[in-house]
Amino acid sequence: MILHWQTILAVGLGGFLGAISRVYINHFITKAYPSEFPYGILIINILGSFAIGIMFALFLHYNFSQNTKAFITSGFLGALTTYSTFAIESFFLLQSSLILGISNMFFNLFGSVAAAAIGYKLLTFILR
Fold first, then answer.
1. N or C: which end of the chain has fewer CB within 10 A?
2. Where are the alpha helices (DSSP H) in 62-97?
3. Rounded CA gap, 9 and 5, in Å?
């Protein structure tokens, strides 16, 4: 598979917008609901996973260009959600509270997978 410059640009632009969105959403959530538990990243990861489930259902029913798919999935949603922040937050939580650390890992992993499945199944059901 050859990556064209348009696809690279689409992923880069989507990633730029997704990363900035993550910072603002996380900032808003953590300021509105201060807590030792990283609710901001958890909510972002679950919503982003739900969105990617919806997008993959849309991709099966409608024609989108490869660049649009790359912009939305690898770019925007890939940068919006974050595995590395989840990982380091879980590590630090485990050092201070085993229960909070395991809870963060559980809800991020299973919540994100469930959200992606729900988004995909829901839109597939609606589009039938």
1. N
2. 66-70, 78-80, 83-96
3. 6
Our count of domains for the chain comes to: 1
Residue that the structure tokens 């939305």 belong to: 72
Q: Residue 49: which residues within 8 A CB-CB, separation 6 or more?
A: 81, 111, 112, 113, 115, 116, 119
Domain containing residue 108: 5-127
Residue 63's contacts (CB-CB under 8 Å, 6 or more residues apart) are none
Residues 6+ apart with CB under 8 A from 45: 81, 82, 86, 108, 111, 112
